[in-house]
Design goal:
By secondary structure, the protein is of the alpha/beta class. The chain has ten helices and 16 strands. Strands 5, 6, 7, 8, 9, 10, 11, 12, 14 and 15 form a ten-stranded mixed beta sheet that branches. Helix 5 packs across helix 6. The longest helix has 18 residues.
Length: 351
């Protein structure tokens, strides 16, 4: 069960991924996340899959940004892992963080445990192999009085910092629940150095630059991350031009492999990295991991609690905060077709 953030109530215990499976006459099958329509899918029929794959451009197809199934298929046809087709610039073991530390202390069923409930969640995640955590803050935006909420935010991050080893990375995300002044006050009073701070206030080139200057003046190495709500690459242009963000967070499913690789190429000369947003998606974690082994300026992948029995992910391994990305052709997951019963929508497509 995932709790509240600064804007939204309890997130619940379910999530949905849309899976597109592409079968070929050769017997090879590509699959992955894609929110495709029947109209888009029919355009793939009777086509050579490699007509949609171009080494320099990536995947260009009627599926648009929902390109994961075709990257998977291209890799299988060519006998190459998708991360190598993306460039092969990243490490075998890609950094991963747990992005599920929400406001559990505010849920009635955990009221008696309060912050200790959050520490229990951290402990469970450490047992699974995580060494980095993103902590939601911003309780005073909607759920508590502003001063009381800010005090609780500070109490939570201090408690987690004291609870974990010094080498465990911590990040915070207010979901735009603060303003610039509150962000500065939070960071000053918390006295915790974070790896990055995310969506601390609504995006603004000038205010983000001011936050960066303020952080640097204190000798901190904290990075400024934002951009999960972006709808296109052009959204990032002014932030890249002035290096207002250190980390870009375009959503892994919204943008797909090809556009995020393009974004990484635009960001790299400015010394900016990518840590794609991923929430409510099991497939999104593995998409990020593949991208992370493919591009040179990948920062960290986000994992949420989503689980499913539809896939065999045994080629991936999470250990000490990093995920091993396999050399398997395609995107590295195997589909357990026997688990698909009653979970598919069959289309009868004709050309």
């Amino acid at each position: 069960m995932v709790g509240k953030n600064s804007h939204l109530d309890v997130h619940g215990d379910t999530a949905t991924d849309t899976l597109l499976i592409i079968d070929t006459t050769s017997g090879l099958q590509g699959f992955g996340w894609a929110n495709a329509s029947e109209t888009e899918a029919v355009e793939l029929l009777n086509k050579d899959p490699l007509n949609f794959f171009h080494p320099a451009q990536g995947v260009v197809s009627p599926l648009g940004r929902g390109d994961a199934p075709l990257w998977d298929l291209a890799g299988k046809i060519l006998g190459e892992p998708a991360w190598r087709l993306l460039g092969g610039y990243g490490p075998e073991w890609v950094p991963v963080y747990d992005g599920s530390i929400y406001f559990s202390d505010l849920q009635p069923e955990y009221a008696e445990r309060g912050i200790s409930r959050i520490l229990e969640e951290v402990d469970h995640s450490l047992e699974r192999g995580h060494r980095a955590f993103k902590i939601k803050v911003g309780r005073g935006f909607k759920w508590m009085e502003p001063e009381v909420g800010l005090a609780r935010d500070i109490e939570v991050v201090r408690a987690i910092r004291a609870h974990v080893d010094p080498d465990v990375k911590l990040m915070v995300d207010s979901n735009n629940g603060y303003d610039l002044d509150t962000t500065k006050r939070f960071l000053e009073e918390a006295d915790v150095e974070f790896f990055f701070v995310e969506e601390m206030f609504p995006e603004s080139v000038e205010e983000d630059l001011e936050l960066k200057r303020w952080i640097q003046a204190r000798g901190w190495e904290t990075l400024v991350a934002d951009g999960e709500s972006a709808r296109d690459i052009e959204h990032f242009t002014p932030y890249i031009a002035r290096a207002a963000f250190d980390v870009l967070q375009g959503d892994i499913r919204r943008f797909g492999f090809t556009e995020l690789r393009d974004l990484a190429r635009l960001a790299a000369p400015a010394g900016i990295g990518l840590a794609p947003h991923n929430w409510g998606s099991y497939l999104g974690l593995y998409m990020q991991a593949v991208l992370g082994r493919g591009i040179p300026n990948f920062v960290m992948a986000e994992q949420d609690p989503a689980q499913t029995e539809l896939f065999d992910a045994s080629g991936f391994e999470l250990r000490e905060g990093r995920m091993r990305v396999p050399d398997t052709p395609g995107c590295g997951l195997a589909l357990r077709t026997e688990r698909l019963a009653n979970q598919t929508l069959d289309w009868e497509l004709n050309v």
